[in-house]
Amino acid sequence: MPTLRIEARRDAATGLFYLAIHMPAEAEQPYVTTAPRYASAAAAEQDFVATVAAAANRPRQSMTEGGSGGTPQAPEV
Length: 77
Hints:
Elements: E1 5-10, E2 17-22, E3 32-33, H1 41-57
Antiparallel strand pairs: 1-2, 2-3
């Protein structure tokens, strides 16, 4: 069962496309939307995939290196 739904929609005022992300997938109102800045639905979808792929492949810092990921380490005494 899908946990989220992503739809490319055209903004009536600008004619540009934006993404509406619904979470849970069956929600009527979007959880979050992007700004209407894409010339086509395909461009909006491709940008989303590229953004997620870049974020997923970015190296993460551990808590001991000052990052927010990983397992917290107790200070040495």
